[in-house]
Amino acid sequence: MSAPKKISIVYLAFFLCVICAVATAALAFVANTTAAPIAKAKEAKVFNGLKTVLPAFDNDLVKTKKTYKSANGADVDIYTAKKNGKVVGYAAQAFVTTGYGGRVEGLLGLSPEGKITNYIISSHSETPGLGTRVTDRKVTKTIFNLGSKKDDSKLPPNAILDQYVGHSLAKGDSWKARPWALKKNGGEAEHVTGATISSNAACGIAWEAVSAFDKNKAEILKGGK
Amino acid sequence: MWKDFINGIWKENPVLVLMLGMCPTLATTSNAPNALGMGLATTFVLACSNVVISAIRNIVPAKIRIPCYIVVIATFVTIVDLLMQAYAPSSIYDALGIFIPLIVVNCIVLGRAEAFASKHGIFRSLLDGLGMGCGFTLALVMLGLAREFCTGGTLFQIKVITPWTIDFNLMSMAPGGFIMLGMFLAGMNIYNKRKAEKEGRKCDPPMDMDCRHCNICTIEREK
């Protein structure tokens, strides 16, 4: 270390500037080289989620993304999945901010008629072990089934998320066409005891998705042609 | 040379002896894979920043050495963050995401820069960084394994007590982290004391880990 005295403040400032400039250059280089892989990883994440909730499709899903408003005015992204030019389903990405840990995002697969076919929570920060009972679809790995192959064709069951499957806002559905609610609040959906807020969030996301679909049905169906 | 490496793993273990970097320790050890990810990221930052700081130790004016060190450390942390976003499994990045930028303020990194790298050569600093990082990673993974096992009987997210179920969520949350860390420290103190007695030395537990500095028990009496 150089002698602490006799060093002018200008030199100190200059030195710090040089250090920062070198650091910035290094960062710029790394940011540049990782920009493409990061974008790819993010896209892959969205795409993998979409793949799990939709039936087999062969079009470029990411390009079909369109944003619609739900009945509550929230943004819902809807993707159209096609196979051989025919619509096989829609995927709706919806969110609520009323989870126990804030924002909860869900991904729903919808049939061409708008019925929920699949439902996963794609991002959340609920309490581990309590709220995650609502949000997670997970098979417990044990030492005994380590070797056995994972069955990717079906999602692991989650009673709370699965109860929404088959429901829509179409006429004749057993669930009423008003904002869906938990049974304890006078609605139809079950909840996990001790995780009411998380259950409520899951219910809210499902409602956002189906209401956005119902509200913009004409436009969505036209886009599918 | 070898001593510099070993030092960080046991004698000066960052978590269990130096008690540095408690925030990531408690926050990311709810399961072993996360703890391992955090440990490796910190090790990378420690080793790289130690090398660079040791290389520039003679040209940095003493007055502004701390800001310079912080810039170096922050640069490496950002690099790790970008690399993890690009190449790490998304589940690990999702879990660690908010803690990676916090490595900048992890006291171990700046602590080693100031206490070791700014006074020693590049090679020894690298070994010290790697050793400290390994010690940190080891301590984190042990804590993670213990907490994970108590939470649900899993090790590295694989259940090992299959016929039975544990559902002890306290251990996966922050209070459980404190409890488990306390048990680890107690165990470490017992071990060191026994070892010292065997060798005929007197062993005092570290100052801030025993009753001497804490007067909670005597408050009533003094009144």
Describe the model.
The complex is a heterodimer of chains A (225) and B (223). Chain A is of the alpha+beta class. Chain A has helices spanning 9-53, 132-135, 159-162, 196-215, 217-224; strands at 66-69, 75-83, 86-99, 102-110, 116-123, 141-142. The longest helix of chain A has 45 residues, at 9-53. The mean pLDDT of chain A is 84. In chain B, helix 3 (32-55) runs parallel beside helix 6 (107-117), helix 3 packs antiparallel against helix 7 and helix 4 (65-87) crosses helix 6. A two-stranded antiparallel sheet of chain B has the order 1-2. In chain B, a hairpin with a 2-residue loop joins strand 1 (154-155) and strand 2. With 223 residues, chain B is mostly helical. The mean pLDDT of chain B is 85. Classes of the chains: A alpha+beta (225), B mainly alpha (223). The interface between A and B is medium-sized, with 31 and 39 residues.
